[in-house]
Write a structure and sequence with these properties.
This protein is of the alpha/beta class. The protein is built from 3 helices and 3 strands, in the order H-E-H-E-H-E. Helix 1 crosses helix 2 (49-57). The longest helix has 17 residues, at 16-32.
C-alpha cells in the first residue's frame, strides 16, 4: 500500500464472507426502511471494500466511507463507481465528523 501516512501499520483487510453473511442476515431489516432512511457508514474505510460489498448487495442505498488518510480516496471512489453512484467519501478523522449530518430528521 504505502503512502498512507503511517496507516499501513494498523491496516487489516476486510474478509468478504463474514460481512456478506452479516448483511444477508440483516437484509430484510435494511430493506424494511425507505432507501433514504438507511446509510452504511464505514469508519476507517480505506479502499472501501465493506462499502463495495454493501453497495453491490444494496446499490440503491447510500454508502459513506470515512477515512483520515487522503491516500485512499482515489481507490475508494474508483471501487465504488463500479457498483453504485450512491456513495460519499469523507476525508477526516472520525472524531471530527458530525454524524448528525446523516440524520434526515435534523
Amino acid at each position: 500500500m504505502g503512502g498512507a501516512g503511517g496507516g499501513d501499520k494498523w491496516y487489516q483487510p476486510t474478509y468478504a464472507t463474514p460481512l456478506i453473511k452479516a448483511l444477508e442476515f440483516l437484509k430484510k431489516d435494511i430493506l424494511y426502511y425507505k432507501k433514504d432512511e438507511v446509510i452504511f457508514i464505514d469508519i476507517g474505510c480505506g479502499k472501501g471494500k465493506p462499502n463495495y460489498i454493501f453497495s453491490k448487495l444494496f446499490p440503491q442505498i447510500n454508502s459513506c466511507g470515512i477515512e483520515m488518510y487522503n491516500y485512499y480516496k482515489k481507490f475508494f471512489i474508483n471501487n465504488l463507481k463500479l457498483v453504485t453512484k450512491n456513495f460519499t467519501f469523507i476525508n477526516e478523522k472520525a472524531q471530527c465528523v458530525n454524524l448528525n449530518l446523516f440524520n434526515k430528521k435534523n
